Amino acid sequence: MTYAAGRHFLQIPGPTNVPDSVLRAMSAATIDHRGPEFAELGLELLRDIRPVFGTTGPVVLYPATGTGAWEAALVNTLSPGDRVLCFETGHFATLWQEMARGLGLEVDFVPGDWRHGANPEVVAEKLAADRAYTIKAVCVVHNETSTGVTSRIPEVRAAMDAAGHPALLLVDTISSLGSIDYRHDEWGVDVTVSGSQKGLMLPPGLSFNAISEKALAAAETARLPRSFWDWKPMLAANQRGFFPYTPNTNLLYGLKEALRLLYAEGLPNVFARHARHAAATRAAVRAWGLEVLCLDEREYSGSLTAVLVPDGVDADKVRALILDRFDMSLGAGLGKLAGRIFRIGHLGAFNDLTLAGTLSGVQMGLTLAGVPIEPRGVAAALEYLQDN
Ligand code: PLP
Predict the structure, then answer these.
(1) Ligand 1, from 95, 143, 145, 171: best to mutate by most atoms within 8 Å of Cβ?
(2) Which of 83, 258, 301, 343 has the highest CB neighbour number within 10 Å of its CB?
(3) Closest-CA residue to 201 (of 7, 321, 335, 350)
């Protein structure tokens, strides 16, 4: 690799750019994870992580990526053969339901076009038809990172309540936590799954389950095999600020600093910042004459925007050119969207000028790749930022 001056633009929708102060915090010496200094850190983090999830209940932390927290949510609450209702909102929802099948659950996978979120009306229909309450959980990916579509969790919850159905609500917030408004308690979510590498502005390697009382009760009778993911020893050790195994201490230093940054800005401001950058990005996409993948304006994502390229254009070639010429990484189209879209991550440690740089790179890249666009996108986004 030749030397590239200046900072790399990491504008994939996670992992995101890690702030310097978080990097510095993580460079402190690793301490004894069974000693008193660690217990203090552990207790502080286990308390201070809760507001990001919008909960006053327990949040467990795993030294694992988001996929592990997906598994934890399923194995702690469900039993072999249980039915779960899942929605094909995109690549990650598809992977989660595949995992559920692999674990021995029976999945009702509602097909989708990868341009819409989970449909609350279908939730209502499916649960109303399930008079015997065979569906034990509804699993929804809050923000589909593969499509830039955000499902309406309060409406999904309302549909479940209207049906009077006792299923648990399991929600993946891996690319929405700390970026898009989210309220575990208020929205009646039973398990919220998340990860460190997106809105929390940390490297990958930490993941989370926020757990409702109903989910804790379900764990008492759930029979899927579990060991590493078992909430019980975790919650017991957490009482004293410890973990049942070796935690990733330096990532926890980073988490402490990342939470400090999020709370210093204020979560409502963090969410508004993301929504504003997302709106400016959509203004750019439309001014280029391109199409935003998400089709429902109620479901626009604050953390990323997926852009459809014209027929005959290979989005991966455009991304490769942008990486080569401008040292910027953009998200690839995943699964059935491979080559058809690119994804602009605008989440985490990100401001107006990061957006201006990002969109400039995209505009120059599209032009150099010969994609027929109007070169007005950057100007449209800047106008939006000035006026809003
Ligand atoms: N769910 C969503 C919405 C994601 O975006 C990702 C990763 O990007 C995952 C799950 C999987 O998480 P991980 O790659 O951290 O295991």
Answers:
(1) 145
(2) 301
(3) 350
Asked if residue 174 and residue 241 are part of one domain, the reply reads yes
Average pLDDT, the chain: 98
304 shares its domain with 351? yes
Ligand 1 centroid, distance to 49 Cα (angstroms): 19
User: Which residue range(s) make up the domain with 121?
Assistant: 20-263
**C-alpha of residue 304 to centroid of ligand 1, in Å:** 14
pLDDT, one tens digit per residue, over 279-335 is 999 999 999 999 999 999 999 999 999 999 999 999 999 999 999 999 999 999 999
Give the residue from 189, 213, 177 showing the smallest Cα distance to 138: 189
Stretch 161-188: mean pLDDT, rounded?
98
| Same domain, yes or no: 67 and 208 | yes
Q: Is 99 in the pocket of ligand 1 (CB under 6 A)?
A: no
User: 3-state DSSP call for residue 47?
Assistant: helix
Annotated binding residues for substrate: 343
Out of 239, 263, 287, pick the residue that ends a domain: 263
Q: How many domains does the chain have?
A: 2
What are the CB-based long-range contacts (under 8 Å, 24+) for 44-48? 44/241, 44/256, 45/252, 45/255, 45/256, 45/259, 46/238, 46/241, 48/256, 48/259, 48/263
Residue 318 belongs to some domain of the structure:
yes
Mark whether 259 and 295 lie in a shared domain.
no
Element (H, E) at 378: helix 377-387
Q: Are 237 and 278 found together in one domain?
A: no
CA of 368 relative to ligand 1 center, distance in Å? 32
Q: Is the CB of 174 under 6 A from ligand 1?
A: yes
Which of 212, 232, 263 lies at the terminal end of a domain, its last residue? 263
Q: Is the CB of 195 under 6 A from ligand 1?
A: yes
Residues 243 and 337 in one domain: no
Instruction: Compute the distance from residue 375 Cα to the ligand 1 centre, in Å.
Output: 33
